[in-house]
Amino acid sequence: MKPPLVDIHIVNPRIQVELLYATPHNFTGQVVYDFDRCLVVQPVALALDAVQRALEPQGLGLKIWDGYRPIAAQWKFWEIMPDERYVSDPRKGGRHTRGTAVDVTLVDAAGEELVMPTGFDDFSARAHRDSRDASPEAIRNRERLRAVMEGHGFLGIESEWWHYDWAGWERFPLID
Prior knowledge:
Muramoyl-pentapeptide Carboxypeptidase, domain 2, two-stranded antiparallel ribbon, 4 helices
């Protein structure tokens, strides 16, 4: 049985959502999917709620750029960028296609994004989670994001500072 997907705004409406793949403002230059709600499996939604609640006393919050991604979208990405450092091979399944991965950043109390080492979907070495090629402020913000996400059960990947997988993602089935 496939787990249901949960709209993150039902769990916590204070988390900002700007699904860039529902717009042409992404590395493909086109709309990749036609929905504007961030969907994830329930344990991920609950963990993101906990992250948001941990950030709020610091005057910060989460912004989500991507959550669940249909398999058709994964194929579109793979056709453009067939590099597993940045895009999961859809034949193997992916983390976003299970509703267990999110692409996130931090925002301040006014909803403005904090400075990070790169923008979203930057496929350069500067976007790697341990790159030192950024301002001290951007590195501090990236590390703050890492600490709060890892502290709530998420794991990052080497090539993208913004991407986090729910620990145990591989136990969840593909959802299409």
